[in-house]
Please model this.
Amino acid sequence: MGQLIFITGGARSGKSTYAENLARESGKPVAYIATAIAFDDGMKDRIAKHQAQRPDHWGTIEQYKDFQTMTDNPVYLQAEIVLFDCLTVMTTNNMLDFPVDYDTCAMEKVGEIEGAIKIEVEKLLDVCQDKTLIVVSNEVGLGLVPAYKLGSYFRDIAGRMNQLVAGRADEAYLLVAGLPLKLK
Model:
């Protein structure tokens, strides 16, 4: 049986660096699951910075859904540690895959979308149950209530996905200014 470690915190709190250090210090083979999509120059820059700080020998899987397909991926198969960065970007990408207008769609549709995202998160947890899985996610509950519906729906769905993963985690950490606070 593997271990689940959940790492959360605000933007630029040091979450990814902390997660990467945990994986690096283990000395075990690592598969890095990158969920970001390079849709603009800002995201391309963020991705490049994340790539530069990772060891070259870590395998990378660029994927934000259909995690059951990883079981055929040599990078996944050779890894003892899976570092998933990050749950909130995965949530965003999955939300945007649905062709809906979040300003006008019915709450039932938002519920269906959340259900589909929950299934993806559960697939990730199930697929990685025999490995050490480190999940990085943004804490979304400490800021202002978003003024637009998509932002509000995202915050709610991402918050519930964080709760799902944290609830199943063996260890959980909150990062603030690069400092970890162990939650469990």
In short: The longest strand covers residues 3-9. The chain is about 45% helix and 20% strand.
